[in-house]
What does this fold into?
Amino acid sequence: MLGFRKIQIYTFAHNQMKDAQKISPISDQTVQQQGKRISVRDKLETSNLKPQTSVMPRPRHTAQTYIEGVLAQDRVILSQTITLIESHLAQDEALAQEVLTALLPHAGKATRVGITGVPGVGKSSFIETFGLHIVEAGKAVAVLAIDPSSQRNRGSILGDKTRMEQLATHPLAYIRPSPSQSTLGGVARRTRETMLVCEAGGFEVILVETVGVGQSETLVRSMVDFFLLLMLAGAGDELQGIKRGIMEMADALVITKADGDNKVFAKNASREYQNALHLFPPHQNGWHTPVLLTSALACEGIAEVWQTIQAYITHTKNNLFFDKQRSEQQLAWLQESIQYTLEKAFYQNPDIQTHLPALREAVAEQTLLPTQAVKKLFLMWEKNLGTSGK
Ligand SMILES: Nc1nc2c(ncn2[C@@H]2O[C@H](COP(=O)(O)OP(=O)(O)O)[C@@H](O)[C@H]2O)c(=O)[nH]1
Ligand SMILES: [Mg+2]
It folds into this structure.
């Protein structure tokens, strides 16, 4: 084997819908640099495309420094606070929680918008144009990403950085890639906390982007006020991998790339989706999901999307759905945290760790029922909860 650190790079073929369906791993990439072959990851770490986070452990500030820095809207401290929150180190957890607790009263005032769609639909291009529209109106925008693929590599940051060039350098914008957590639940938890930090740091609009490839849409839906589904014209929804459930979750559908020859297809698609939406049960908040046409390249329809979101916020604040949804989201977060904490405590328990492998084997060999294995494990766990459990 070569001695390089290996990463997988996913290439997204953007132009064709059929290509957009494929996410092809090109594993173990290396590149030539100054006569030596180095891994793509090492190249990234030395290039300008370096993400805003570092993987190196850093010395920590005091809680007060983080809190005051975020509240003073210091971007460097803001980034460091998010890095602290994303840390996998047990010793960072108490500090992160202390900082978050202090920031909480200053959070919650932003408009939280989720944006999803299949790879290639135009999310990054849309966010660039849409984000610029908002910052030009004088509002500070933070872009966060939930990218399931970033659990193994650095996610879509490469594509995003090049497609969000202007937004990335705008003083009122902040772009943060997906945290590298081992589970989607972990990513979601960190993103929720990051959102709070950004709000305390003065961001008025939070855009949470996710690649529409599965569960991540539901997670994003559970943390935003408004959920935007980007769709391509000229492709059936089954081809776009968009499940009916995702369409039902959306507060607006946006047909992207409505420019040039594609404009007529986009208009047709808009009518089709409008008809399809009529078949869905109405939203409990009395909102009718509109279908909008946009072109990120021609900067058309972008202002209408922002107007729609503002109209939705006004509508749901007036009929009290806004607060109701936020409360429900907090409770869902609580529920997830309970599950996560229980699971963690369970698997970290020394007795469980000792006995689980044998029990797993017995279950696999069908000599023990899973329910019986669970019973045994819980008896062990409960017995030493008082001694080693937290
Ligand atoms: N014609 C046209 N092409 C676009 C538009 N927005 C994005 N694209 C192209 O579609 C491809 C995918 O865009 P990207 O923003 O990377 O999609 P993402 O994978 O969803 O983030 C790129 O080649 C873009 O140039 C648009 O408004 N009009
Ligand atoms: Mg993208």
About this structure: Residues 12, 14-15, 117, 119-125, 159, 163, 256-257, 259, 295-297 surround guanosine-5'-diphosphate (ligand 1) (CB under 6 Å). The longest helix spans residues 321-348. The chain has three domains: 8-46, 63-328, 349-390. The domain at 63-328 is CATH 3.40.50.300 (Rossmann fold).
